[in-house]
Structure prediction request, 855 residues.
Amino acid sequence: MIGIVIVSHSKQLALGVRELAAQMVQGQVSIAVAAGIEDPENPLGTDSIQVYEAIASVFSDDGVLVLMDLGSALLSAEMAIEFLPEAQQQKVYLCEAPLVEGAIAAVVAAAAGRNIHQVMAEARGALLAKATQLGVVSRPLSLVHNTPTTNVESSTREIRVIVSNRLGLHARPAAQFVTTAVRFQSQILVQNLTRNTELVRGDSINQVTTLGVRQGHELLITATGADADEALEALQGLFANNFGEAARSCCSNKEGLPNPEGEDNVALNSPPTLHHEVTPATHGELSGIAASAGVAIAPVVHYQPTHISITEYHVDEPDAEWQRVQAAIHTAKQEIQAVFSQASLQIGDAEAAIFDAQLLFLEDPVLLEAAKERIFEHHINAEAAWQAVVDKVATSYRTLEDSYLQERVDDVVDVGQRVLRLLAGNAPANLHLEEPAILVATDLTPSDTARLDPTKVLGICTTSGSATSHSAIIARTLGIPAVLGVDAQVLHLADGTLMALDGESGKAWVEPESHILDLLAAKQEAWQTAQQEARATAHQPAITRDGRQVSVFANIGSINDVQVAVASGAEGVGLLRTEFLYLDRTSAPTEEEQLEVYQAIAQVLDNRPLIIRTLDVGGDKPLPYLRVGFPEANPFLGWRGIRFCLDHLDLFKTQLRAILRASVGHQIKIMLPMIASVTEVRAAKVILGEVQAELNQAGISFDAAMKVGIMVEVPAAVAIADKLAAEVDFFSIGTNDLSQYVMASDRTNPRVANLVDALHPAVLRMVQQTIQAAHAAGISVGLCGELAADTLATPILLGLGLDELSVNPQSIPGVKQAIARFSIVESEAIVASALQQDSAEHVRELMSTSVIPPA
Prediction:
């Protein structure tokens, strides 16, 4: 297929064009960027070597089309061609088409299979459509009821479905609907027949959500196109399977509130409700909404997000403004993915999935089209156009009759403000607290709440919000007491004022009197006792009904995490993600810095096992101070994990030295990530041996018998698991990456992330094959992916024969309880059935309909 190269003086502009063009064809066409120069003071410019490398990276015998802006970009492109072999030079074409429109037209034509001359002609004619459009009166774009024109000659099919989800198409089911719809070429439209809405686009997260779909509503879904039948079958399957919520349909949280996101609050975070009457209203008492149970007594600290002041003004170059929007959205996606990753560890994957909908918001074609239209038709600046569009979407949510869906406006505002902040060039608001406090604010966004440290934020008190908002859900999962919707007078309190709040009764007290403090202290003590009892249960071994013990370890990513893990009943750390030491800084951590952290974590574990994974960057975790040198079109298949470390021996050896030095007196093991060959393992062991020899020569002690294991997360490692097992002491299966590689789907891409399901029989069979190879070689095998924390999957993991499970700390009590409910015999029977299913949906259906032994 034809390759496309974008050459520009501005790297940001070129990346934005590539992002936009790639979205048009969902990554089907290879697009390389050669833009900017490596000069922090003056980054604008072009480099012929960059252009040469970009052409080489996408070269195809079908041809390469090079698009560039003015001036030296053209000279650099011409010079780059001179570096190519003569045979290749004949297949590279420089095109004078406009950069943005030309790139879009070119990739669409290339994806359609056109030849190089046809692709170049399409690029050159890219401005025709815009010129034609500007010559007529265009129809205003409605954010809520914009329905694209259908092709009457195409085949149109339709289905009607009854929604059985307890809360209808809330955030995650709506996100699943949209990500499924965009997989097909057919045009998907959907109508809420119960509410008699208009047909709206099925590829728009906002239009689908604002249909106000609740349990029992009837929907009409139409599909027009060649794959209409397949599209409708896939969408119907989502409804038939309750969007994967069958096992959670009757869940409610501990406060008796509806559980809109189906979260599983484990006993550690939600001890039994304790009824201690405080008193009738007293001096300084404020009444609000009980959003998250628990008692907090601490000084208040105000949180005020940075206000972004927007001024609308005329612009002469709308292209540049649209590129600013694209660049801000691209950065916002990266930030949200980072929030999702951290939230997954801190609050669990189910609750963190709230942020999936935010990613889809940024890909909503209706939203993007509306923003682009405002910029190009009204010639206004990016900030004003974006704010106007987001405000319109937010208003469409607020006017819904459904109160639950009205509350989703918080997510719209959250993600909208994130992009606006990036456009304005503002730094993120600082939520760091020096001392424990109760946070007082007008409101907290889901992103704000997910960033809170429960050891510093002892309580939350806001003047707005509701118990079913995403922020409240996250607060409950974090175990932070919260009272929302109190009188605005609380905003005038001075920082340091003593406050007490009771998240169960929904009351707060400003400078509480002594008898109130006594009553609340008694309730807090009872609450803490309940937590201790829950932890005590969690500290017992996880033993199946027929007597087999399974180790339950924790996945951690900081020193704070290990303290939570031990308190939650972790029997060790099955995965220490060391990336936190390398991120958010301008240089790599020193040996001494790492040694201090590793020793501190091992000290908290008190001789429990500690498996340290060596640096795993690349893919979705780049290091800004270690430049790759060229953009990777597919970073998840690129220079990451062990590949990166073997090419950065100084970095690798420094980490190995720190780990070895920390091993004295502790049960530390080394784990190598992203292993795909025996050669990589042997190369890493040679380097480890060199480091050990250096330490011996220097007279520095270390554990010479320290075990070395690998992550099994690449299909190649599964295929040669027997060979790898002969080289190492243990395996740890990383189902997060293994699933995406087996299913050939990027788990960070909302459009295909639904395909990445570790319960797919193809993934389960690979897990089984790995375990069998490990046990045949006499080595242990654990699993540290998200699947380990899914209690629906517990019997499958037991039946497959895993020796240990490693999960986020909050999931430990629930996983231990689930293990105790099954016997190995019945688990093996369940596995036999699961491996014969033909889809992840059918495996989940099998699990949700299985008879679960009582706790």
Summary: Residues 318-347 form the longest helix (30 residues). Residues 135-153, 246-281, 851-855 have pLDDT under 50 and may be disordered. The CA atoms of residues 219 and 623 lie 46 Å apart. The chain has 33 helices and 24 strands.
